[in-house]
Amino acid sequence: MRIARFSLDGTVGFGVVEGEPSTPEGPVLDIIKGHPFAEFERTGHKLPLNKVRLLPPTLPNKVVAIGRNYAEHAKEMGNEVDETPVTFFKPSTSVIGPGDPVAYPSFSSELHHEAELAVVIGRMCKDVPRERARDVILGYTCANDVTARDTQRSEKQWARAKGFDSSCPLGPWTETDLDPADVGIMCTVNGEQRQLGRTSEMVRPIEDLIVHITEAMTLLPGDVILTGTPAGVGPLHVGDEVAVTIEGIGTLTNKVIKRDY
């Protein structure tokens, strides 16, 4: 099930996406009553998907991101795979949705894309045992861990490099029926392929990440885990269109713009 969060005439809601772009009528949105983090009902009120504005599929209290979870990416950045997962936060103010612009930060001159599979948490959880990890997941979406690479190198903490406004595009929706063990991840910039990998290449699978994170903190419904990026990260420039495509989910597209002072 693909669950989208949308805006129409100032009203924000959730709906189930039905159909494919190739169908004559195109995808439609079946509006739901309530929200996807509890039992909900379909209203049967359907709207063409192209008539609404898609928003980030969730508004997380926090985004917990994992670094160096693909060996080839760690290698291309000159790092070894750490004995324990590298974790960092991206604030809620960094989150944007499909089609929203990524504003090039004023303090950086080296912006990079990082295509990632994102996990959307479905219920409050703490100290999750590995065998129950899948039970706390609502679904999965596409993410771009946009990074000010020069700032990341020059500052000991990654808060500014990875947490600036618009640095966490998410979307286009949450897919609840995905097996994330081995799906393809691709990033293109202006139609040119930059990254191509599979989730099976992760150093640590999603279950282990959930165990590790919830040993330390409570995850809330709607929180997001970024699971790391494959090799092939590279520069973004003002005017570039960057797209993250994940097999079984869809494509998240954003354009890089000059920051509006």
Automatic annotation (TrEMBL):
Keywords: Hydrolase, Metal-binding. Residues 62-256 form the Fumarylacetoacetase-like C-terminal domain. Pfam families: FAA_hydrolase, Rv2993c-like_N. Gene3D superfamilies: FAH, Fumarylacetoacetase-like, C-terminal domain. GO terms for biological process: carboxylic acid metabolic process. InterPro entries: Fumarylacetoacetase-like_C (IPR011234), Fumarylacetoacetase_C_sf (IPR036663), Rv2993c-like_N (IPR018833). The keyword Protease does not apply. It comes from the Bacteria. GO terms for molecular function: acetylpyruvate hydrolase activity; isomerase activity; metal ion binding. Residues 1-57 form the Rv2993c-like N-terminal domain. PANTHER family: ACYLPYRUVASE, ACYLPYRUVASE FAHD1, MITOCHONDRIAL. This is FAA hydrolase family protein. The lineage of its organism: Bacteria, Bacillati, Actinomycetota, Actinomycetes, Kitasatosporales.
